[in-house]
Amino acid sequence: SIITEEDTDGPHAMKRALDVQQKITVNQLMKELRREIPRTYLHIPDSFEIRVGGQRLVFKYWQERLVELSNITISVGSTIPWKQNFEVSDAHPDAYDLRLFIGFDRHR
User: Fold this and answer.
1) Tell me: the pLDDT tens digits for 51-102?
2) Closest CA to 64 of 42, 85, 35, 40
3) How far apart are CA 37 and CA 50, in angstroms?
């Protein structure tokens, strides 16, 4: 293609520079999202397909990083004091399940 003086100076060059900067910024944001989303959410099932920029995210960051990772489900009642012990088999209408993930970070 032929590059004219108008293409290398003035508004056209400024617009191209802005377009390039926007692409760089978007690319950096997409990389950050691909890195941070799996660190933030560890309870996403494998059956969910989440993509960022066309790339599928794998939610195994903590499972691969932590040693002795355990998953515990505890029944919690909002009106029952946490110090009071109640059986899971007891029917509490306000109870909900709380999933806890516990492990040791081998990198710290």
Assistant:
1) 998 999 999 888 888 888 888 888 777 776 666 665 555 556 777 888 888 8
2) 42
3) 10
